[in-house]
Specification:
The protein has 241 residues and is α/β, with parallel strands linked by helices. It has 8 helices and 8 strands. An 8-stranded parallel beta sheet has the order 7-6-5-4-3-2-1-8.
């Protein structure tokens, strides 16, 4: 089996998992968007996934995103019959000095976690379409993990109203790692509760539609708890070196 065939088969399995989890939760599978996490994978893997019908790809490192966007664009341009370009998502921690590689260049930026970062995204997106964002929330309060504290979330959402070039479309989290996927459930439920509470308060430039949560090992639980975006890498591309 070729590498492209392996990726296509893995994508089919992940899509089946999403459909089964949605059915079990009484949800429309079409309400859940798969983001294929292509970090540390070559541009040729992205092209193979594109050929298998995957359009949304997530990257964790700003400069890798810059380089891979260019590499994939070249492959797509050279591929016979290729019509689709990928939709890029930025899903990793972002420093202000790396915003220039991301703002205005991704369909969705998942990891806004401070007013300072948001202000820089707004500045860098000037002159183009507003940058769609999610706010990353550190629901578990982990000291070494990025994300705004739940208590600080309202103020950060308020900040979107003061800026012209950013829009908030939802919330994102990375739960504490555990081999037992069930331990993520209360964190997913807590993010959903935060989203539901905050979207009851109307704010300019804020429409809390999305919940970005769930990865290869716990996507079923995330879907049961309301995920609209699941970020899956290993189950599609295999283990990273």
């Amino acid at each position: 089996m070729s590498r492209a065939e392996e990726i296509a088969a893995a994508l089919a399995r992940v899509r089946q998992r999403i459909a089964a989890a949605a059915s079990a939760a009484g949800r429309d599978p079409g309400s859940i968007q798969l983001v294929a996490v292509s970090k540390k994978m070559p541009a040729s893997d992205v092209l193979a996934a594109l050929a298998a019908g995957q359009l949304d790809f997530g990257e964790n490192y700003a400069q890798e995103l810059r380089d891979k966007r260019a590499g994939v664009a070249g492959l797509v341009a050279a591929a016979p019959g290729a019509e689709q370009a990928p939709r890029w998502h930025y899903i990793g921690p972002l420093q202000a000095n790396k915003v220039k590689y991301v703002a205005g260049k991704v369909a969705l930026l998942h990891t806004v976690d401070s007013a300072e970062l948001l202000d820089e995204i707004d500045r860098r997106a000037a002159g183009g379409a507003p940058q769609a964002c999610l706010v990353q929330v550190n629901v578990a309060g982990e000291a070494r993990k990025h994300g705004v504290a739940p208590s600080a979330l309202p103020a950060l959402l308020d900040r979107f109203a003061a800026l012209a070039q950013v829009r908030c479309h939802g919330l994102m989290l990375i739960p504490p790692f555990s081999d037992d996927a069930q331990t993520a459930r209360p964190h997913f439920a807590a993010l959903r509760a935060l989203r539901d509470a905050e979207r009851a308060l109307p704010r300019p430039h804020v429409e809390l539609t999305h919940l970005s949560m769930g990865m290869s090992h716990d996507l079923e639980i995330a879907i049961a708890e309301g995920a609209t975006l699941v970020r899956v890498g290993t189950a599609i591309f295999g283990a990273r070196t």
